[in-house]
Amino acid sequence: MRTTTRRAAVLVAAGALGLSGLAAASAMAAASPFAGHPVVAATPGPGWSDGMGSGYGKGGSAMMGIGARDGSCLEAPIAAAKGTLSEAQKTTLVAMAQEEKAAHDLYTAFAGKYDAIVFDRIAASEARHLTTVRTLLSRYGVADPTTGEPAGKFSDPAAQASYDTLLAQGQAGQAAALQVGVTVEQTDIADLTAALGGLSAPDVTQVYTQLRMASQHHLAAFQNWSTR
Question: Which segments cross the bilayer (predicted)?
Answer without folding.
Answer: none
